[in-house]
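Observation: inputs received (chain + FE2/S2 (inorganic) cluster).
Thought: call the complex predictor directly.
Action: predict_structure
Action Input:
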Amino acid sequence: MKLKVNQEEREVDVPEDVPLLWVLREELGLNGTKYGCGRALCGACTVHVDGAARRSCVTAVGDVVGREITTIEGLGGEARLHALQQAWVDHNVPQCGYCQPGQLLMAAALLHSNPRPTDADIDAVMAGSICRCGTYPRIRRAIHAVAGSGSEGDGGAP
Ligand code: FES
Ligand code: FES
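Observation:
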């Protein structure tokens, strides 16, 4: 089947019910998208499908044929960082880094639907992406930096 991934057409020969996450990582070599729980609970595998955040671990590849799939590799890269990636660098967001591709894709989808989110808006959306390192306060600051919106305070957490 033919997939549109990061604005390129890619062809894969897999059963339609294989999870998109497996296809991205094992067939297409796009291993920026991470496996966490495999059950739509952690957000590590988040990608965009037609601009909306989607858990690739529970998305059958057959369901996204002909749709625009964007992974962390397509959001931006070293040559040209997405504004959120630059803010992640500026605010030193990642700790171990494992959850961060999913966090960035979630944040991009949030700003697409809500360009000036409040703290509560950010927390409500980003709570679905689990960070074992507890980087939520820095994620919130970085999102505000891109949105140009002010934080109401993060309780002084690092
Ligand atoms: S690996 Fe998909 S939500 Fe956890
Ligand atoms: S930075 Fe380590 S899990 Fe989020």
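Thought: report the result.
Final Answer: The chain has a mean pLDDT of 94. Residues 94-100, 131-133, 135 surround FE2/S2 (inorganic) cluster (ligand 2) (CB under 6 Å).
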